[in-house]
Design brief:
The chain has 723 residues and is of the alpha/beta class. Helices cover 49% and strands 11% of the residues. The protein has 30 helices and 19 strands. Bound molecules: 1,4-dihydronicotinamide adenine dinucleotide.
Length: 723
C-alpha cells in the first residue's frame, strides 16, 4: 500500500498505492505513516519524496468507509489520516510531495503536511469535502489559510472548487510546477532542499497571515456563506473552521475542526449529499431493454462534431465541445449569431488561460449545410418546432456521412418522430443539455425506441468528455426532467388561484433550498416558451376547442394564468415584467408587482374563487409531492432506471438543493407512507387534478413496507411489468 524504496543515494521515494485513486483508507494511512517513520529512521536517507501510484497523487479519504461499504468506520479513517499528516509534518527530514493527477481532499491535506509541494502542470488540487456535506478534517482548514491566506482558503474550502497547478502556484499552494516527469523534478528539488531548516515549512507552527481588515473579511465570508448555503450546514461550518485558524492557536483550531466534523458526519444533509455523490456514479451504468449496456457497448470516437443553431443553447454546446478539444463545424441561418459565439469563445479562452486562437481555430462557422458532411456527430439546437426539426433531420440524413450520429437538443419533442424522418433511426438520440450549456453539468441522453447501443454509448461518453454527468432516459414528452416539472409548475399556479402570491410560493421553495422559486425561474426562462408548447398541444390560444371553460381542459383542472400573462405581453425578464416587475427589459432584480396582485384579485373574483390563507407546508407538499409523484410514474414506466437518475437530473439540472438529496430521496426521507397519505388528502380536495393521484409504484412501495431507496433500483427491475 505504501512502498518505500531508496533511490539515488540519499533520497527516499515513498509511493502511495491504492488504485484507482490511492484513497487514504485507515489501513493505507497507517501503512504510509510507518513508511515515513522508517525512512526517517534510516540514516542513509536525507530527504523524502512522496508520490502516488499510477499517475495520480491521491483522491482523498476512502469514500467506501464513508458509505459504510467496508467494516472500518469513516471516523477511524479520519483519525488515521490526522495522525499521518501530523507525522509527516513532524518528520525531521524534509518531505516533498510530488503531485500529479489529483490531490483532492485528504490527498491535499497530506500534501499540506509535507514541507514542500511540486505539481505537474496538468494536476488539479482542491478540498471538495463540502460537496459531501463535510469539511476537511485532517487539519486542512487550519493549514491552508496559513499557506495561502484567508481569502483564498475561505473560498476553496467553502466551495470545494479545485484549482489547476498554475493557479496553485500563483496562490502559493505549491512551490514549483513542472511539465516534465514529476518524480524527476521532485527528486532534483529534494536534493536542493535536503539541508534546509524545516521550522518555517511546518504549517502548524506558522503564524496565520493577519491583514488589517481580517475581522471584516471573516465576518463578510460567514455572512456570504450563510446566504449562499440556503440552509446547507457544511459551507457555514467550513467558514467557521477556517475562521478558527485566525482566532485560535493551531491545536484548538484543529479541535474545533474535529468538533464541526463530528456534528456534520451523522447529519441528514451529509447523508443526502453522499447519496448524490454515489448517484452520479451509478447513473453512468446505463442499460437498454434489449440487454445492451455500458459494459458491453463501446462508444464510437468523436473527433469532429457539428452544431446546428447557435442560439441560447447551441452556442453553449459549441463552447463545451471546443473546450474539450473537439473541432466543431457550427452552422446558423442568422449570421449575427456567429459573432456572438466568437465573443463567447474568446471569453472562455481567457477564463481557461488559453489563447483565443487555440479555441477559435477549432471552430469552422458556416451558413451552409453541406459543410457538415464530415462530422462524426451532429447536435441540432434550432427552434423547438417539430416540423422544422423533422425537415432538418431528413436533410441531414441525406447530406451527412451514413455513420454520422444525429442528435437533438429538443427539450420535450418526440425523438422517435425525428428518427423516423431519417434513413438511420438507429443513429438518432436526444442530447438534452441545460442552459447555459457550457456551465450546467447535466446531460439527459434520450434513447429512442430504435436508438442503437452504439448511439447511446457515444452520446453518454461524449457527455462525460464534456465534463457532464450523462443520464440515460427513455423517450416520452418532456423526458424525465421537464415531465416532472409540469405538475410542479401547475401546482404553483393552482396555489395562486387559491390565494397565494408568487413571492410567497417562491420564498417557501427558496427556503427549502432551491436556487430559485418556480415563478422567478419561469420569468428567467421566459413565459412564452411554455405558452408556445401549450398552444401546440391545444391547451391555450386559438387551438382550444370552442366551448371549453377557461379553467378546464380535457375534463381536468387547468390554470390559464401564465397564458393570460403572455397575452398581456408579460413574458418575464426579457420584457421587464412577468410574475414580477424588473428594472426594465432584460432586468434581473425581481420586485413584487401591484399590477399582478390586482390582476390575481380580479381573476379570482371573475371565477368565483375565494382566496384563503395557504401555509408553507401546503406550498411545499403540493409542489414537491406532485413532482415526486410524477417521478414514481417515470420509474414505473421505465423512463428512468432508478431514483438516482431522477435525483441526479434534479440536483444538476433544476437547482434542487443537493443537501436534500433530490426529489425521490426527499420523499423517501420524509417517509413514503406520510407522502402517500398527503397525496391522498390533496387528491380528495382536488379530484380534478390527476397529478395528485398517488402513483401505483408509490402505493406498491408503501405496501411492501417502504424499502430503503438503495433497494428501489433492483426492485424496479422485477416490478415494472406488474405495476
Ligand atoms: P434559440 O431561439 O435561442 O436559438 C435557436 C437558433 O437556431 C437561432 O439562432 C436560429 O437562428 C437558429 N436556427 C433556426 N433554424 C435554423 C436552421 N434551419 N439552421 C440553422 N440554424 C437555425 O433557441 P434555444 O433556446 O437555443 O433552443 C434551441 C433548442 O434547444 C430547442 O429545441 C429548445 O427546446 C432546446 N432547449 C432549450 C433550452 C433553453 O433553456 N433555452 C434548454 C434545453 C433545451
Amino acid at each position: 500500500m505504501a512502498q518505500y524504496s531508496r533511490v539515488r543515494g540519499s533520497v527516499a521515494l515513498l509511493r502511495l498505492t491504492n488504485p484507482p485513486v490511492n484513497a487514504l483508507s485507515a489501513a493505507v494511512s497507517r501503512d504510509l505513516e510507518r513508511a515515513v517513520r522508517s525512512a526517517c529512521a534510516d540514516s542513509a536517507v536525507r530527504v523524502l519524496v512522496l508520490r502516488g501510484h499510477g499517475g495520480t497523487f491521491c483522491g482523498g479519504a476512502d469514500i467506501r468507509e464513508l458509505a459504510g461499504l467496508v467494516d472500518v468506520p469513516f471516523r477511524v479513517g479520519v483519525s488515521s489520516l490526522v495522525a499521518l499528516v501530523d507525522a509527516v509534518e513532524a518528520a525531521e527530514k524534509p518531505v516533498v510531495a510530488a503531485i500529479e493527477g489529483v490531490a483532492l481532499g485528504g490527498g491535499l491535506e497530506l500534501a499540506l503536511g509535507c514541507h514542500f509541494r511540486i505539481a505537474h502542470g496538468q494536476a488539479r488540487l482542491g478540498l471538495p469535502e463540502v460537496t459531501l456535506g463535510l469539511l476537511p478534517a485532517a487539519g486542512g482548514t487550519q493549514r491552508l489559510p496559513r499557506l495561502v491566506g484567508f481569502p483564498a482558503a475561505l473560498e476553496l474550502v467553502a466551495t470545494g472548487r479545485d484549482v489547476s497547478a498554475e493557479e496553485a502556484l500563483a496562490l502559493g499552494l505549491v512551490d514549483h510546477v513542472t511539465d516534465g516527469d514529476v518524480e524527476e523534478a521532485a527528486v532534483e528539488f529534494a536534493r536542493r532542499v535536503a539541508d534546509e531548516p524545516l521550522a518555517s515549512r511546518r504549517l502548524s507552527t506558522r503564524p496565520p497571515p493577519r491583514p488589517a481588515d481580517l475581522d471584516t473579511l471573516l465576518q463578510v465570508a460567514l455572512e456570504r456563506a450563510q446566504r449562499r448555503a440556503r440552509g446547507a450546514l457544511a459551507p457555514v461550518a467550513c467558514v467557521q473552521a477556517v475562521r478558527a485558524a485566525a482566532t485560535l492557536p493551531f491545536t484548538q483550531g484543529l479541535q474545533l475542526e474535529q468538533e464541526l466534523m463530528a456534528a456534520l458526519l451523522p447529519s441528514n444533509q451529509a447523508r443526502a449529499m453522499q447519496y448524490c455523490f454515489f448517484a452520479q456514479r451509478i447513473v453512468g451504468k446505463w442499460s437498454l431493454p434489449g440487454g445492451a449496456n455500458w459494459r458491453n457497448s463501446p462508444a464510437r470516437a468523436v473527433s469532429r462534431a457539428a452544431v446546428i443553431g447557435l442560439g441560447t443553447m447551441g452556442r453553449g454546446i459549441a463552447v463545451s465541445l471546443v473546450r474539450a478539444g473537439i473541432p466543431v463545424v457550427a452552422m446558423e441561418t442568422d449570421e449575427k449569431q456567429l459573432r456572438v459565439v466568437t465573443a463567447m469563445l474568446e471569453r472562455e479562452a481567457a477564463k481557461q488561460r488559453r489563447s483565443p486562437d487555440s479555441y477559435l481555430q477549432l471552430v469552422q462557422f458556416t451558413l451552409e449545410r453541406r459543410d457538415l458532411g464530415d462530422a462524426d456527430l451532429v447536435v441540432e439546437a434550432v427552434f423547438e418546432d417539430l416540423a422544422l426539426k423533422k425537415r432538418l433531420f431528413a436533410e441531414l440524413s441525406s447530406s451527412c456521412r451514413p455513420d454520422t450520429l444525429l442528435c437533438s437538443n429538443t427539450s420535450a419533442l418526440d425523438v422517435d418522430a425525428l428518427a423516423a424522418a431519417t434513413r438511420r433511426p438507429e443513429l438518432v438520440v436526444g442530447m438534452h443539455f441545460f442552459a447555459p450549456a457550457h456551465v450546467m453539468k447535466l446531460l439527459e441522453v434520450v434513447c429512442g425506441a430504435r436508438s442503437s447501443p452504439v448511439a447511446v454509448a457515444t452520446a453518454m461518453q461524449l457527455g462525460k468528455r464534456l465534463g457532464k454527468v450523462s443520464v440515460a432516459v427513455a423517450n416520452c414528452p418532456g423526458f424525465a426532467g421537464n415531465r416532472m416539472l409540469k405538475p410542479y409548475v401547475e401546482q404553483a399556479s393552482f396555489l395562486l388561484e387559491e390565494g397565494a402570491t408568487p413571492q410567497q410560493v417562491d420564498a417557501v421553495l427558496e427556503d427549502f433550498g432551491f436556487a430559485m422559486g418556480v415563478f422567478r425561474m419561469s420569468d428567467l426562462s421566459g413565459l412564452d416558451v411554455g405558452w408556445r408548447v401549450r398552444e401546440e398541444a391545444g391547451l391555450a390560444g386559438p387551438t382550444v376547442p370552442p366551448g371549453e371553460s377557461a379553467r378546464r381542459r380535457h375534463g381536468c383542472r387547468y390554470s390559464p394564468l401564465a397564458d393570460l400573462l403572455c397575452e398581456h405581453g408579460r413574458l418575464g425578464q426579457k420584457t421587464g415584467r412577468g410574475w414580477y416587475l424588473y428594472e426594465g427589459p432584460g432586468g434581473r432584480a425581481a420586485t413584487p408587482d401591484p399590477w399582478l396582485h390586482d390582476f390575481l384579485d380580479q381573476y379570482r373574483r371573475r371565477h368565483g374563487l375565494r382566496p384563503r390563507r395557504i401555509d408553507q407546508q401546503e406550498v411545499l407538499e403540493r409542489c414537491l409531492y406532485a413532482l415526486a409523484n410524477e417521478g414514481f410514474r417515470i420509474l414505473e414506466e421505465g423512463v428512468a432506471a432508478g431514483p438516482e437518475d431522477i435525483d441526479t437530473i434534479y440536483v444538476l439540472g433544476y437547482g434542487w438543493p443537493a443537501h436534500r438529496g433530490g426529489p425521490m430521496y426527499h420523499v423517501a426521507a420524509v417517509g413514503l407512507p406520510a407522502v402517500l397519505s398527503r397525496l391522498e388528502h390533496f387528491r380528495r380536495l382536488h379530484p380534478d387534478v390527476p397529478q395528485l393521484r398517488p402513483s401505483a409504484l408509490l402505493r406498491h412501495l408503501v405496501a411492501e413496507g417502504s424499502p430503503p431507496i438503495s433497494r428501489w433500483r433492483e426492485l424496479l427491475k422485477g416490478l415494472r411489468s406488474q405495476l
